[in-house]
Amino acid sequence: MANVFIFPVEDAAAGSTCGIPVAGGFDMESVLPFLIEKNQIDYLGQIYPDGKCHPWGIPEIGENASLWNAMAKDDLVLGCRDASIVSAAYVWMKIRSPELGARLWSGGVGEPFSLICFTDEPQWGDVPIVEQMTGYLDRDYRGFTKLAPEKRDNILRDYGSFETFVRLCLRFDFPFSFRHSE
Known about the structure:
This protein is α+β, with helices and mostly antiparallel strands. It contains six helices and nine strands. Strands 1, 4, 5, 6, 7, 8 and 9 form a seven-stranded mixed sheet that branches. Helix 5 (149-159) crosses helix 6. The longest helix is centred in the C-terminal third of the chain and has 11 residues, at 149-159.
């Protein structure tokens, strides 16, 4: 069963910012030299035919590695900052590469963002986690987190799919001015 992972865009408690995708993506040419396996290179070429890829990265510290290992293709990754969801994307592929993390997110504090997942193009927004959403998401997240199974199940029971949840609850398909607010 697919899962939901919360990916901090800024984590002041940890004193770092995770390696997040940039609007428009990264050039594939900057990523390809760091891929070792030919099937990874071929796969990225297929999923990013426009030559722009969308990687996310986290440092390999604490529980991050075990959570990252639990991530699978088609899992939902939500970017969170200040009790708001700011992005949503789906995992397509993962690699462990400190060198690539350092190349993409230079200037980071501490450990390089070596645990990397490639996603579809993120949907961006700024949706506060209001009281009505607490059956699906907690208001406060610290660090990289896997959503509790009961909250994942609530999303699937009430919305039928993660895609519908993102579209309707997070309202990433509505103009910003029409989204719910606190």
